[in-house]
Amino acid sequence: MKGSTIALTAGVLALLGGIVALLFPLPAGIAVTTFTGAAFLIAGAFGLFGAFSQQGMPRRGWVAFLSLLQLVLGVAILADPLAGLVSLTIIAGSFFLASGVVRLVLAWRLRQQTSPVLLALTGLLSLGLGLYVFFSPTTASTVLLGTLLAVELLSAGVALTGLGLALRKL
């Protein structure tokens, strides 16, 4: 199969996935949560295995402890994906809040050297998203992660489709 066909196929599939995630953000968010829980579970299991199978490993206790935390976190998320969805949404909200504050501070500090309007606007947008999550975490949980997944899939779909079309012209 040609590279252009693979890129176009992947692009169309990503676009379709993005549309589905945009239409159904709660199931998409639960899918992200389930994937995250499985990743923590697998990473924790491999970490524990590595901590006890490698002789002479430095800091074995810390590796085992952190791996056990990952394992427990993975099990907890998989046992109750809705609670995990709320937790991941709050983590995302914390990131948005922090990045919004940082961008606003940078915009303020750079106001003499350049026009920081776009930086300030994106900072306000991130700050607003963070505040939205913190003031209504349950409502935000039903849409935020699924919508973020949708945006990522749509942007990847556009990029891959564009790449496939460009490769066809070559």
TrEMBL record:
This is HdeD family acid-resistance protein. It comes from Falsigemmobacter intermedius. The chain crosses the membrane at residues 31-49, 61-79, 85-105, 117-135, 141-167. InterPro entries: Acid_resist_chaperone_HdeD, DUF308_memb. Keywords: Membrane, Transmembrane, Transmembrane helix. PANTHER family: PROTEIN HDED. GO terms for cellular component: plasma membrane. Pfam families: DUF308. The keyword Disulfide bond does not apply.
